[in-house]
Amino acid sequence: MDGNDSSDSAFTKNNNESGVSSSSSSPDKKRTRLAKVSSPIAVFSSGDDGIKQKNSPKSTEEKPSDEKEGTSAAFPSWVAGASPAKFIPLEDLIRMSDCIGKMNIAHKIATDQNCKVEDFEAADPLYVSVKSNMRKAYWDLLREDLAKEPPEFGHAFSLLGDLKQMLADHLEGDHLKHSLNAVEEILDMDKLKSLADQRGGLNFEMVIKDVLDVVGRLCAPIRDEMVANLKKETNIVKLFDGVFSLVEMMEIDMTNFKISQNRQLIGSYSAQIEFEEFEKLMQIDESSSQNTKRWLGKILDDFLSSPDIKSCADGQKDGLTRAQVNELIANFYLALLTTNPTDSDRIPFPETLKLDEKLLDALNEKFLQLELTISAIFISANLVGRSVCEGNDFKSQLKRDLIVILNDVNWSNSTQKLNNVYVHCEHKCREAAAEKGWNEERGNALRRQLDGLCRTDDPIRVISRKRLCDFVGQALLRRSSPMRIPSGLSTIQTELASLTSQFYAITVHNWNGFGRFYGQLLDQFYESNWKITSPH
């Protein structure tokens, strides 16, 4: 909206009084400020030297002969290292931030079907309060102008001009050209001002309601009630307020409509966009893919150390096959799903999946829940016997209960949660196998085996994890083939399908964008490994 002239002039006046206007600054001061803004930012790693303060009195003192130029005054060179400071220009940081922002937007639209533009008011009460007070003050000013004798129409005409511009910005495209022409005809400012001069005033209510007729045909059905109420309104100030609010909502609705109409197209190109933006990041900062390389290197090392690969490695001088590369990439994704993210030995999260880190961590906990649930079911079912498992709904009921007990399990509280699992499993086993001779010996065995689930290398847990990974891995490698549920996992079929579908959506999107990059890295690592291990 217009009407900020007075505030602008006040701002200029305040600046002049405080001595910060452009006219009060000397050319030398300007150059100094510009130099500070454009200077690069020094980034120091653990091996970098300290920052030398050129203006400090100590900087003019003679340094000891045993201290090398550029080393820190706080640490000797053999502690701090003698590497020079690394400089990243401010412009590169801004470009990096812009790249990350574009990647995030494209990624959310492509992977989240519910992604849409929302009104900022819903998430920030402070914003609502400030905006409400500012709008009230503005509308009060308009009300006072219209109530004067004679009325002042300056703000009202300014608002009509703003409304015309807002609608012109939203009504783009050939299919909206007719509506745009109608708005321009209704809000012909020269014509309206001429009429106001001739008649000594203007029927603003009629003008706004003519605009509402056009806008009402363009709005989503959810706005029909608001349009109808505005058409009944006779207060000019409330009409202005309402029509501007309606146009703001229409902007959000039209944006979400465009997103929904083009979501498939966005999904087709977003993976490519993400990789292109990531390449820009790597050009700015070569270390931006360091963690990803470490993850893939570890996956390849584990692959090459397996007995089956060792036995045929001598004949595989030409490199990895396509099937092997795909298997390694799938193992890379599965490692993120199955390993403890709080483990100090775990490699930091790969940069290429940073946008999905929180969601993947949540799926990691969901996988842990299913792993512990099916392991506890295996142990309990084995101890109660075949007749109990086949004769009633023992495993299904136990699964439903354990899913609830382990609902908020994570790697930090898993031991505590397993105590609760034991209490419930012991009760259900005793109840189900009372007639089959459940005794203290079986109860102790149940306790001992469930306690073992605290360790990730527990045999039962290893079996459960492998079967879960086999199913999820098949989903990644056989994208269109029907898959068979591994033995023993039919009890958690629904939960496993939900986990797999969410994990699949993330990983396949990432694979489409970065799969070739992963493959190139794996080939490079394999070639380097071959040169090191092969005889010369």
TrEMBL record:
<feature type="compositionally biased region" description="Basic and acidic residues">
    <location>
        <begin position="59"/>
        <end position="70"/>
    </location>
</feature>
<dbReference type="Pfam" id="PF05794">
    <property type="entry name" value="Tcp11"/>
</dbReference>
<comment type="similarity">
    <text>Belongs to the TCP11 family.</text>
</comment>
<protein>
    <recommendedName>
        <fullName>T-complex protein 11-like protein 1</fullName>
    </recommendedName>
</protein>
<feature type="region of interest" description="Disordered">
    <location>
        <begin position="1"/>
        <end position="75"/>
    </location>
</feature>
<dbReference type="InterPro" id="IPR008862">
    <property type="entry name" value="Tcp11"/>
</dbReference>
<feature type="compositionally biased region" description="Polar residues">
    <location>
        <begin position="1"/>
        <end position="20"/>
    </location>
</feature>
